[in-house]
């Protein structure tokens, strides 16, 4: 067994601080309470401020629009040439982009400019189509996608399938009530991390672990190791247990857990997310729980214990995903 290094011990302290911050954020963050869908922390204040630019929009509507436009990717570029987190066409940006952060440049690739510009543009087109019959919000969203002229021409949402789907999708996202995200909340993530931390030092057992805690495993691993006499966890048994404590049932194997979770874009992982290793979704062989600063909690392999490991503990990191609180059952 590889001993836990001083760096790993430091990570344990860091993880505790991160978990505490997650719990505080879940209870005290007014933006989190106002938004019904997940928003990267880097953009929450921008969206909260810009979402109150005019009465026709809200932070939740603006967050929904950015989710649909780019998935909060500030470097997004569409085949048609739309640019940045809010997907402005160059001509529209030239007319409506603003230097919102006052740095002397109107930069479509800078969320500090693009997000407030998006809100301002929504307010402008809401005024443009205010006299068009029908739902004012739907007309505004349709105009953002297809142009105000098209909305006025057709007296409402144009008969374009793309625009119609665009309006439906953003409206559904914007109408989600607070706390309705379809992935684990920050409170649930904090609970899962704490549950896994409480098992540090528990022996690895092939096939061991369930929603109730450590258990004797089965025979046998690919290299012939048996867990039948060892009470402990294998990698997916640990994650299953941790999320059971958070009220989210996961299936038994690492590959099944990946299928039951929502992929997270690189750089957007947060403590509590699951980190998967393998060559494909069907061939995932290991999973750990991300705790921050490039470290995971995992049950690595026979002969080891539950411990902190660096994310590059294995060379075939496949992806990161966030558990979904669906009716998954242990298999």
Can you describe what's shown?
This protein is of the alpha+beta class and 331 residues long. The protein is 41% helix and 11% strand. It has twelve helices and eight strands. A six-stranded antiparallel sheet has the order 3-8-4-5-6-7. A hairpin with a 2-residue loop joins strand 5 and strand 6. Helix 4 crosses helix 9 and helix 10 crosses helix 11. The longest helix has 23 residues.
Structural class: alpha+beta
| Proportion of residues in β-strands | 5-15%
Strand order of the largest sheet: 3-8-4-5-6-7
Termini separation comes to: 29 Å
| Contiguous runs where pLDDT drops below 50 for at least 5 residues | 1-34, 327-331
User: SSE order, as H and E?
Assistant: HHHHHHHHHHEEHHEEEEEE
What is the typical, i.e. mean, pLDDT?
A: 84
Query: What is the approximate shape?
Result: elongated
How many DSSP H or I helices?
A: 12
Largest sheet: 6 strands, antiparallel
Radius of gyration: 23 Å
Total number of β-strand segments?
8
């Amino acid at each position: 067994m590889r001993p836990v290094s001083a760096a790993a011990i430091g990570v344990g302290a860091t993880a505790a601080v991160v978990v505490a911050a997650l719990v505080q954020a879940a209870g005290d963050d007014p933006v989190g309470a106002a938004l019904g869908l997940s928003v990267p922390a880097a953009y929450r204040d921008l969206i909260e401020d810009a979402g109150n630019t005019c009465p026709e929009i809200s932070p939740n509507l603006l967050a929904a629009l950015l989710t649909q436009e780019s998935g909060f990717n500030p470097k997004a570029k569409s085949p048609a040439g739309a640019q940045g987190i809010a997907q402005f066409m160059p001509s529209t940006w030239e007319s409506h982009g603003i230097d919102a952060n006052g740095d002397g440049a109107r930069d479509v690739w800078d969320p500090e400019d693009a997000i407030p510009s998006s809100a301002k543009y929504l307010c402008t087109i809401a005024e443009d189509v205010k006299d068009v019959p029908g739902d004012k919000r739907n007309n505004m969203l349709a105009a953002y996608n297809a142009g105000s002229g098209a909305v006025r021409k057709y007296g409402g949402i144009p008969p374009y399938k793309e625009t119609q789907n665009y309006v439906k999708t953003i409206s559904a996202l914007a109408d989600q009530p607070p706390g309705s995200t379809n992935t684990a909340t920050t409170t649930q993530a904090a609970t899962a991390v704490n549950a896994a931390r409480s098992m540090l030092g528990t022996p690895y057992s092939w096939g061991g672990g369930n929603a109730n805690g450590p258990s004797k495993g089965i025979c046998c691993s690919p290299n012939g190791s048996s867990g039948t006499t060892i009470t402990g966890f294998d990698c997916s048994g640990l994650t299953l247990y941790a999320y059971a404590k958070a009220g989210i049932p996961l299936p038994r194997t690492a590959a099944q857990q990946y299928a039951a979770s929502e992929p997270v874009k690189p750089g957007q992982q947060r403590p509590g997310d699951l980190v998967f290793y393998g060559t494909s979704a069907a061939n995932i062989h290991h999973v750990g729980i991300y705790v921050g600063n490039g470290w995971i909690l995992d049950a690595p392999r026979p002969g080891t214990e539950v411990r902190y490991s660096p994310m590059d503990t294995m060379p075939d990191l496949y992806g990161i995903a966030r558990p979904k609180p669906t009716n998954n059952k242990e298999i």
